[in-house]
């Protein structure tokens, strides 16, 4: 099987420490996972919504097994594209699944950008103004482009500092809110029911989306110090840190607000929870942390996705046109990334953006597990039972999520199916044309 080799001999300088890798992974995860998705998860799962984060962490830990095994065997800055190429060869499946991953990352940018705008407008009670939310979200995406265009060092330093600030700030908010409200008030005083098990399962799709930032570590495997040892450790530490932070916030929000209040404020649930628990000071503190977290999350995500798209272009897995722009492929990909993310941020609301990202990511994740199980498990020493368990968990969550969305918002299911289909068809045409041109020459 012919593949592009992105192994640890050619992947470049080891510049990311274990701590730096954890900061990078948690920085991307927490930007979306807390501020953008807590309300969406509670809307589906009801008073049991903290359990959704636990289930999401378990499914993500199963999923991480494939990525860790592959990264241990071939530490690479090729990341997910490398995994897919080795699993399927340089064809339509590998290229399409890699592009789905890149698109899910772009979708994440628009999700977090709209969350930033919603929190920024909340002190002025303008968070329901769709035009202002779209303008502010677009402004953040443009700012993220400018920071990234300034160079990698700007992104790295900014992300490390912001990761520490937001994790510390979120922990302070959550512990203070729990201290004031206790564990028996708000949503947790409401009767829990298991009658809507499918909705609880469906909410896990959003929880998985809240953890998917661990793939940023996989995509930087070739740059992590002692990657055979540290890539897996970095991923599992990042997931562990995030599940603790997520549970703290879920309990804080659930103890301060009823489910109806969380649903009403689902796009800014942390700020809504801070006000009754901690007063005006807590409210403004939470808004400030949210703005910091979401802004840094978008900047880190633009950096990661532009790198991934550049890599896919260099591996000839996606077409490229400079449209008359000067500079290299990376600078062009920065522009394309922010254009697509900006369009999504303007055209869709938070719920639909999150749903679209969940569909794209889960399909890609299942393709990774199946490819590793079918073609690589013996070579990398992976257990078939764990690979199949990860595949089954994704399938169950995706099925439940699709069923719930078909009942509540069938249009977004159609958009997802059309989007995934378009990616596979476009890749088939592109690769067939490239193959034909190679034969003619």
TrEMBL record:
What membrane topology is given?
Multi-pass membrane protein
Spell out the Gene3D superfamilies in the cross-references: Amino acid/polyamine transporter I
Major localisation:
membrane
Q: Which InterPro entries match?
A: AA/rel_permease1, AminoAcid_Transporter
User: What's one GO-annotated cellular component?
Assistant: membrane
- Localization of this protein: Membrane
Q: Which GO terms describe its molecular function?
A: L-amino acid transmembrane transporter activity
Which parts pass through the membrane? 21-42, 48-68, 88-108, 128-147, 159-180, 200-222, 234-263, 283-306, 327-347, 353-373, 385-406, 412-431
Q: Which UniProt keywords apply?
A: Membrane, Transmembrane, Transmembrane helix
Top-rank taxon: Bacteria
Instruction: Specify one Pfam family.
Output: AA_permease_2
**Which PANTHER family does the record match to this protein?**
AMINO ACID TRANSPORTER, SOBREMESA, ISOFORM B
Descriptive protein name: Amino acid permease
Query: What organism is this sequence from?
Result: Sphingopyxis macrogoltabida
């Amino acid at each position: 099987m012919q593949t592009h080799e992105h192994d640890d001999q050619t992947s470049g300088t080891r510049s990311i420490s274990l701590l730096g890798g954890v900061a990078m992974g948690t920085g991307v995860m927490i930007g979306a996972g807390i501020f953008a998705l807590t309300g969406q998860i509670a809307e589906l799962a009801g008073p049991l919504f903290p359990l959704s984060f636990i289930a999401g962490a378990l499914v993500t830990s199963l999923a991480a097994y494939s990525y860790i095994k592959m990264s241990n065997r071939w530490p690479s800055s090729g990341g997910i594209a490398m995994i897919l190429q080795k699993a399927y060869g340089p064809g339509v499946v590998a290229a399409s699944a890699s592009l789905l991953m890149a698109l899910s990352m772009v979708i994440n940018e628009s999700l977090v950008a709209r969350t930033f705008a919603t929190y920024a407008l909340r002190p002025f009670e303008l968070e329901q103004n769709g035009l202002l939310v779209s303008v502010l979200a677009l402004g953040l995406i443009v700012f993220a482009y400018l920071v990234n265009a300034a160079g990698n060092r700007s992104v790295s330093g900014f992300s490390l500092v912001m990761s520490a600030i937001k994790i510390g700030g979120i922990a302070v908010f959550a512990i203070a809110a729990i201290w004031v409200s206790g564990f028996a008030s708000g949503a947790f005083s409401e009767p829990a029911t298991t009658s809507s098990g499918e909705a609880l399962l469906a909410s896990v799709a959003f929880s998985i989306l809240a953890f998917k930032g661990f793939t940023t570590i996989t995509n930087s495997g070739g740059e992590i110090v002692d990657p055979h040892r540290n890539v897996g450790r970095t991923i599992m530490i990042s997931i562990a840190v995030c599940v603790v932070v997520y549970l703290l916030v879920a309990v804080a929000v659930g103890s301060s607000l009823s489910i109806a209040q969380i649903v009403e404020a689902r796009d800014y649930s942390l700020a809504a929870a801070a006000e009754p628990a901690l007063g005006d000071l807590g409210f403004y503190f939470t808004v400030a942390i949210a703005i910091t977290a979401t802004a840094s999350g978008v900047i880190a995500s633009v950096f990661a996705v532009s790198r991934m798209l550049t890599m896919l272009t260099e591996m000839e897995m996606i077409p490229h046109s400079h449209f008359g722009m000067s500079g290299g492929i990376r600078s062009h990909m920065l522009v394309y990334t922010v254009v697509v993310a900006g369009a999504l941020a303007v055209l869709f609301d938070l719920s639909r953006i999150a749903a679209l990202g969940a569909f794209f990511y889960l399909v890609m994740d299942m393709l990774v597990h199946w490819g590793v199980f079918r073609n690589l498990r013996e070579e990398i020493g992976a257990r078939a039972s764990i690979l199949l368990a990860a595949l089954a968990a994704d399938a169950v969550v995706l099925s439940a999520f699709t069923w719930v969305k078909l009942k509540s918002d069938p249009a977004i299911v159609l958009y997802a199916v059309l989007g995934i289909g378009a990616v596979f068809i476009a890749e088939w045409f592109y690769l067939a044309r490239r193959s034909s041109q190679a034969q003619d020459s």
